Amino acid sequence: PKSMSTIRMKKMKADGVPISVITAYDYPSAKLAEEAGVDVILVGDSLGNVVQGQQSTLPVTLDEMIYHTKMVTRAVTAPFVVGDMPFMTYHGSLDQTLRNIGRLMREGLCKAVKMEGGAEIAHTVEASVQAGVPVMGHIGLTPQSVYQIGGYRVQGKTNEQARKLLDDAKALEQAGAFAIVLELTTDELSEQITKQLSIPTIGIGAGPHCDGQVLVFHDLLQYASPVFPKKFVKAYANIGDAIRTGIAAYVKDVKTRSFPTQEHAFHADLDMSGPLYG
Ligand code: KIV
Ligand code: NA
């Protein structure tokens, strides 16, 4: 299949063709996502939660993002791979920010980066785009600011909040972002932002009106049981159960000496009762 690009994504929006996005963090998950026909793979800093077992995305480092992004880009050809800029790696000087973005792009080999924030990071988005780096925006519930927001809660429920988020979306479009993730924004606000922008919106917990949808790999496949059930997630498989059942069968076989059997063993025609082995 043809490689996904920012131009194709914009055309998909114009044509009303939904964009499918999933997160992936390593070689096998990315390979399977490509084989399943996904358009875009996001190497999200959600790996802090679902891969590293941390309470938030804040501890994830640039080196860790590079490590995971490398594994994903090694695995795929057609999907467009976006790497997440981790907490506080794009808020210092523009110089340092561009150096960090450069590392993720050059070492991780992704085709774009994602940054959380609205109008307040528009100048950063603009500088990145001017340097030739496609930027995906991310507004609404931005997990890197969870302690400022005060929790994982739906965004845009007041006129003031909704107006601000609409302005943020426009500022990001103006700054040159090629798409914007809307996380936990109300259905009404997601629809309005999607209508008013020419670049695609990618929703997560943002209702059905976005131009595309993104879900976390481990959530949609039930890889590990979530800490709390999320209303916006739909489970499409239960690979957690499949893995647990498989491992339990292996453990049982080992304990009962049912595995391995002679069919898994190797042989050599040697006389091991001779003096050499005495
Ligand atoms: O890190 C992540 O997985 C994300 C998506 C949920 C948008 O930022
Ligand atoms: Na993220």
TrEMBL record:
3-methyl-2-oxobutanoate binds at D45, S46, D84, K114. Its cofactor is Mg(2+). GO terms for molecular function: 3-methyl-2-oxobutanoate hydroxymethyltransferase activity; magnesium ion binding; methyltransferase activity. Keywords: Cytoplasm, Magnesium, Metal-binding, Methyltransferase, Pantothenate biosynthesis, Transferase. GO terms for cellular component: cytoplasm. Pathway: Cofactor biosynthesis; (R)-pantothenate biosynthesis; (R)-pantoate from 3-methyl-2-oxobutanoate: step 1/2. It is found in: Cytoplasm. Mg(2+) binds at D45, D84, E116. InterPro entries: Pantoate_hydroxy_MeTrfase (IPR003700), Pyrv/PenolPyrv_kinase-like_dom (IPR015813), Pyrv_kinase-like_dom_sf (IPR040442). One of its GO terms (biological process) is methylation. The active site is at E183. Binds 1 Mg(2+) ion per subunit. It comes from the Bacteria. It is an enzyme of class 2 (transferase). It catalyses: (6R)-5,10-methylene-5,6,7,8-tetrahydrofolate + 3-methyl-2-oxobutanoate + H2O = 2-dehydropantoate + (6S)-5,6,7,8-tetrahydrofolate. Its EC number is 2.1.2.11. The keyword ATP-binding does not apply. Catalyzes the reversible reaction in which hydroxymethyl group from 5,10-methylenetetrahydrofolate is transferred onto alpha-ketoisovalerate to form ketopantoate. Homodecamer; pentamer of dimers. Belongs to the PanB family. This is 3-methyl-2-oxobutanoate hydroxymethyltransferase. It comes from Paenibacillus hemerocallicola.
